[in-house]
């Protein structure tokens, strides 16, 4: 899998390449007075609120990396159930910052974050633990993946607000596929038992995954899904957008009731 497994150091250069590409497109989309107050696909947020959210998010990453390098202990994680409300408040608090000032701040934040990620070596990639404000301690490789979610998914949000037909870039979607299982695992709100298969139909991370939800949460592992009564099939882009709650996509093979139950287990962040 090599450069398409972003959880491995072998995937670093490819992941950072795609992050830079998505960020450049994002800045081109938002740095315009005509679009600054336009709607987006992120609920009630306007374009300016998405920019503000990325400022808030990225600057929280700096605190985590500074603490990881210095050995400073941070407070316990805030938790994901309250994330949506808090990030909304913090984004709207920056709503009236002028566009040139806020975009310049985000560009500076992106450059600083890029320097941090560029400097990660093979021992750091999975060996350096960095506290995430909402999720708690995570391996460092999650942070370039978060940057890809930040710029890739939120670029989709900005395009969605234009009302024009569009899609998610293939390289971004392919790299994010493995992280969507982690996202689902972390946002399982209803622990009603179920078991089904997830099939990613294309791209370098295509394959079958067995998923089980029980009293202790969600577990998943690669493996044949042929014996399961329900299988959900996704292309990479549809999988990412469904996991993020941006669309209701996927093809149900088998028992619809099981698939419906599973797809409605999660809370949105």
UniProtKB/TrEMBL annotation:
Domain (Mycothiol-dependent maleylpyruvate isomerase metal-binding) ranges: 20-159
Coiled coil location: none
InterPro entries: DinB/YfiT-like, Maleyloyr_isom, MDMPI_metal-binding
A Gene Ontology molecular function term of the record: metal ion binding
Pfam family, one: MDMPI_N
Record-linked SUPFAM superfamilies: DinB/YfiT-like putative metalloenzymes
Database matches in NCBIfam families: maleylpyruvate isomerase family mycothiol-dependent enzyme
Protein name per the record: Uncharacterized protein (TIGR03083 family)
């Amino acid at each position: 899998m090599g450069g398409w497994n972003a959880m491995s150091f072998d995937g670093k250069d490819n992941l950072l390449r795609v992050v830079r590409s998505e960020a450049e497109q994002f800045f081109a989309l938002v740095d315009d007075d005509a679009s600054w107050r336009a709607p987006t696909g992120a609920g009630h947020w306007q374009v300016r609120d998405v920019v503000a959210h990325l400022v808030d998010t990225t600057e929280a990453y700096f605190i985590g990396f500074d603490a990881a390098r210095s050995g400073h202990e941070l407070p316990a994680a805030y938790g994901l159930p309250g994330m949506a409300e808090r990030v909304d408040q913090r984004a709207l608090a920056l709503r009236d910052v002028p566009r040139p000032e806020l975009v310049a701040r985000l560009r500076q934040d992106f450059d600083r974050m890029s320097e941090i990620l560029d400097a990660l070596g093979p021992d750091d990639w999975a060996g350096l633990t960095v506290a995430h404000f909402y999720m708690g301690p995570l391996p460092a490789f999650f942070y370039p993946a978060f940057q890809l979610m930040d710029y890739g998914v939120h670029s989709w949000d900005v395009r969605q607000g234009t009302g024009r037909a569009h899609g998610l870039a293939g390289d971004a979607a392919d790299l994010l596929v493995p992280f969507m299982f982690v996202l689902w695992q972390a946002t399982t709100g209803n622990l009603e038992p179920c078991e089904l298969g997830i099939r990613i139909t294309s791209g370098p991370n295509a394959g079958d995954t067995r998923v089980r939800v029980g009293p202790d949460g969600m577990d998943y592992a690669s493996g044949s899904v042929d014996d399961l009564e329900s299988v959900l099939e996704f292309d990479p882009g549809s999988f990412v957008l469904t996991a993020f709650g941006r669309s209701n996509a996927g093809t149900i093979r088998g028992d619809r009731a099981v698939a419906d139950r599973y797809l409605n287990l999660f809370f949105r962040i």
